[in-house]
């Protein structure tokens, strides 16, 4: 067993991790080490052989592999050390990490640790889909690894399950590989991706069934057919040779769940403050491990911003915590990130909260301290779409120790409510909601 030491260890070489590592080096942090269990850096984009990636980061549209190569090249040029084939076995208090490396087990000691392990799709087994278990059943990630990573076409006429943004990525990959999906189904009554992106399957002349679910999968060596229940209860049998489950992402946070760090069941990721700090102040997190799921570009920006926070933290210039305020959710609000506010000298005037809902919702979103509503905004939201809400810390009662985020219908707003905002109206430093 060998011992390794560094200033900052980054777990995960995706957009968030590489952006954070690059920014840390550019800001003078001496030894930055990126740990990646895979054989190549770049994260999920390296297996998405289509655009658009990188427009905001690099001012040009790149394919996923080109974007991953650019992220990796920037990190290496900045002096980041990327260690491939290094799996983290456990996170220990104070920045000690148990590793499995190609040379054997090792222990890493870091002054700060960034968890940037991303997210993963929900497979068939977790969705409790019944039927036979032949070849040809997979998630988008596995499918794209076959097509772009190995040059293998696993099926020719699959059924596509889901309607998220990643579903459209799967359709683009199908088109690239000459695959013709027989249909696309979504269990909800409406698509989860935004219009006009939802027009894409129609442009490809792929039948779409909303309010439909899989009842049975049949096949021996390979998938042969799938029976679905449509919105009106009709059973329909579709001949196909594969089933592609897309979306329903969850954070890849098993390391956090099995560690000493506080795990948030709502987001299924680490519990964080507004600076991205975990319950152990040596540990931070960024990207889709904090909540599922955002674009590569957004994760890149989160990683870069977190690096700036850590530079201040290492230099002992970070605000000293005076008060901690816990954030919880109620009703159909699925989660809120961050899960706590650490308030001290030099605190920022506004905090950006990320929310999502389980069901379509129209009404008001409220942040309450006990019986006292401190923020209220009008809202029209759909499941699995980001809701951003800016909270003015000046609106909090001096004695606030906990806040609840939920849909309206409670007591009258007593302070800091301001004017109602429409989804998407939040720009710059304006308070409000955006999706």
From TrEMBL:
GO molecular function: oxidoreductase activity
Signal peptide: none
Keyword Oxidoreductase annotated: yes
Residues annotated as domain FAD/NAD(P)-binding: 7-303
Chain spans, region Disordered: 414-435
A Pfam family this chain is assigned to: Pyr_redox_2
Keyword Methyltransferase assigned: no
Entry keywords, A to Z: Oxidoreductase
Domain of life: Bacteria
Protein name: FAD-dependent oxidoreductase
